[in-house]
Amino acid sequence: MHFALPPRKTSNPPPYARASRTSSVRKQRLKYGLIAGCVFILLVCLLKWTSSGSGEEPIPPGTPEVVIVTLLDEKSGQRYITKIKKNREDYASRHGYLNFYANASDYNIGGSPRSWALVPALRHALTVHPHSTYFFSLSPHSLIMNPTLPLTSHVVSASKLESLMLKDIPVVPPDSVIHTFSHLKGHNIDLVLTQDGEGLCPESFVLRQSEWSRFFLDTWFDPLYRSYNFQRAEGHALEHIVQWHPTILAKLALIPQRTINSYTVDIASRGGRKVTYEKDDFIVRAVGCESDANRHCEQEMDPWYNQWLNQYGQVT
Question: Taking the model in full, what pTM does it have?
Answer without folding.
Answer: 0.82
